[in-house]
Write a structure and sequence with these properties.
The complex is a heterodimer.
Chain A (H helix, E strand, L loop, with lengths): L19 H4 L10 H28 L3 H8 L2 H34 L5 H7 L2 H4 L2 H12 L6 H6 L8 H26 L2 H9 L4 H29 L3 H7 L9 H10 L3 H39 L1
Chain B lengths: L1 H11 L13 H30 L3 H10 L1 H34 L5 H13 L2 H12 L6 H6 L8 H11 L3 H13 L2 H8 L4 H30 L2 H7 L9 H10 L3 H32 L11
Helix pairs in contact in B: 2-14, 3-14, 4-8, 4-9, 4-11, 6-8, 6-12, 8-12, 9-11, 10-11, 11-14, 13-14
Classes of the chains: A mainly alpha, B mainly alpha.
């Protein structure tokens, strides 16, 4: 933890409170507990998160480059990346469209039961993934409530890649709704009134005034839903069927390698997933900073 | 003159036309509401309903038999124990981290914030894998653990560790924005008037953050009791010993004992519903007091 240089703690024993404000750049603080809380925070963070995560990097560095490439790009592994990332992209896109409509409906319209529906949008955050997994499988299985109807139309959902998309759509559902909702709530009616009084049709007002204001939050919601879906395990494994090369997601492949005591193989795949996650985290931080700046600019212009 | 007097009421008779510039036609409204409700019904309400109907398919007696058989009870006990250790640990951490970050200025604060959020961006499977790499037989200290006859992996300590990891950020990320918005004036006033650090925390800070704290704790608890992937990697799936409730659901399901699997799952679904109800209640409480208090809470 060399990155943390603490500027303003008063360690010198001969200093008195009276001399501190003159000698130090930040003013003397009377708030207690900085050293102990920062110390504990960094200690606990290192113990629980940083040192264990470093294990993946160290294990990866114990492999030769060829071993790493071989383990991380075998055909079965590549097929699992295509499924995990492909299905996550589709599910996040579905959530952008329908999550956007749900957010719009919840903010703009009044209807009975709205408060309860609003609260239930967070269900995928609160419901254990295994429960979601078996419930979706029971529904979309060929003899299930929804699966039997779809089967007659010739559509198979459970135990196919389409089932993976369904589970990942469920998991990502709250992200787009919850990022778009506050932006729509804060959006001032004056802009729409101005556009309308200048002769814009409702569709033009939506396309040129409302949509550009909401767009950054839609993209952020998409990225959050994608990032969550790519690593998802519990809700997917029941409905996926888990056939190698066809419906086997990357996290399941890691578990399979672990069960075969192939620690190196599991770690190489995990490393690829971690790099994707960290890239997504970085992108999401940039996106959120961008949409905050945009929001501020819109507000200061009014 | 006369004509305007007559024309005016006619114009005023049609104000209903004016707002249409900033609202949608009725058919668009109905269509959007229909699409939204159909989507939520298909992906949220029907799956939730399915959990309870499948659980009760073989009758109430079978339901209670499934949740009171010894393996189920032992899974419930392990889940409660795990949450009872993981949640308080992350609670203490959350308060300490929020105190440091919200009340003081120091270099590297943004890096620290990003690192605290890391467990949310890591796949649950990787959260379990890291502990296998450390404590497993081929791991860093695996041999030492075997020599000293200490069991961490495929035992309760491993399950607790994995749970602590996946629920790590919940309390901290609720408290940090809340305490940042409250500033330090009230604490400084208490300290100037002679209170010591603990008194200031208990009597000034804690009453200000209690709802945010409870909010973080119930979300942390829901995840701790429901975590599947990370716990599955480190558990070893020993029936009656290292099975948590979600793992027990998986075992029953894979044995085609569907109604028993859904019976245990329905307990977890009730936990989720209770969590959402308390969450909504706290949001209502906080919004009544300070509307800005719950910003930055989305995206768990």
């Amino acid at each position: 933890m060399h990155g943390f240089r603490i500027r303003s703690d008063p360690p010198k024993p001969f200093m008195t409170a009276a001399t501190l404000p003159l000698r130090r750049n930040p003013p003397f603080r009377i708030m207690p507990g900085f050293n102990i809380t920062l110390g504990f925070t960094i200690f606990y963070l290192s113990l629980i998160v940083l040192i264990p995560l470093a294990a993946i990097f160290l294990k990866t560095f114990s492999l030769s480059w060829d071993e790493f490439v071989h383990a991380a790009t075998a055909p079965r592994v590549m097929a699992s990346y295509r499924l995990s990332f492909g299905a996550s992209l589709i599910a996040a896109a579905v959530n952008v469209v329908f999550g956007g409509i749900v957010a719009w409906t919840l903010v703009r319209y009044e209807f009975p039961g709205k408060k309860i529906i609003d609260a239930l949008v967070d269900l995928p955050f609160a419901l254990p993934t295994a429960v979601a997994g078996i419930a979706l499988t029971a529904l979309y299985a060929p003899n299930g409530w929804l699966g039997s109807g779809l089967e007659q139309l010739g559509i198979k959902v459970a135990f196919t890649p389409l089932g993976v998309v369904v589970a990942l759509t469920f998991i990502g559902l709250p992200f787009v709704v919850r990022t778009v909702q506050p932006v729509l709530e804060e959006f001032e009616a004056e802009y729409e009134e101005a556009a309308a009084s200048l002769g814009a049709s409702r569709l033009q007002t939506f396309a040129h005034v409302i949509f550009p204001a909401v767009m950054p939050s839609l993209i952020t919601g998409f990225a959050l839903a994608f990032a969550r879906a790519a690593g998802e395990y519990g809700s997917v494994i029941f409905i996926a069927g888990n056939m190698p090369m066809v419906s086997e997601i990357t996290p399941l492949l890691i578990v399979t390698k672990l069960e075969q005591y192939d620690y190196a193989g599991a770690t190489a795949i995990a490393m690829v997933m971690l790099l994707v996650s960290f890239t997504m985290l970085f992108a999401i931080n940039l996106l959120q900073a961008w949409s905050r700046r945009r929001g501020q600019r819109l507000r200061t212009q009014s | 003159m006369n004509s305007t007097a007559i024309a005016l009421p006619i114009v005023l008779d049609k104000p209903a036309r004016v707002p249409s510039a900033t609202t949608e036609p009725v058919w668009v409204k109905v269509l959007l509401m229909g699409v939204a409700l159909a989507f939520l019904t298909l992906f949220l309400f029907i799956p939730l309903l399915a959990v309870f109907t499948e659980a009760l398919r073989k009758g109430v007696d079978a339901y209670f038999a499934a949740i009171t058989e010894p393996d189920a009870l032992s899974a419930i006990r392990l889940t409660l124990t795990t949450a009872a250790i993981a949640v308080p640990l992350n609670l203490v951490f959350g308060v300490a981290a929020a105190w440091t970050i919200a009340k003081f200025e120091f270099r590297g604060k943004n890096l620290l914030l990003t690192l605290i959020d890391l467990p949310f961006s890591v796949s649950p499977i990787i959260s379990g894998l890291i502990y296998v790499l450390i404590f497993g037989a081929q791991g860093w200290i695996g041999q030492w653990l075997i020599d000293h006859d200490i069991q961490i992996l495929f035992a309760v300590p491993g399950i607790v560790l994995a749970t602590v990891f996946v629920t790590f950020p919940f309390v901290a990320r609720e408290l940090i924005p809340l305490m940042q918005s409250q500033g330090v004036e009230e604490e400084e006033a208490a300290l100037v008037l002679g209170a010591n650090g603990w008194q200031t925390f208990w009597k000034v800070t804690l009453p200000n953050i209690k709802w945010g704290l409870l909010y973080g704790v119930i979300l942390c608890n829901a995840r701790a009791m429901g975590e599947f992937g990370a716990v599955s990697v480190v558990s070893g799936h020993i029936r009656g010993e290292t099975n948590t409730m979600p793992l027990h659901v998986e075992i029953l399901y894979n044995e085609y004992n569907f109604s028993a699997a859904f019976a245990v799952a329905s307990l977890l679904a009730l936990l989720a519903l209770a969590t959402l109800a308390i969450k909504s209640f706290i949001e209502w409480r906080i919004y009544r007091g300070a509307p800005e208090a719950l910003q930055g809470e989305n995206a768990a």
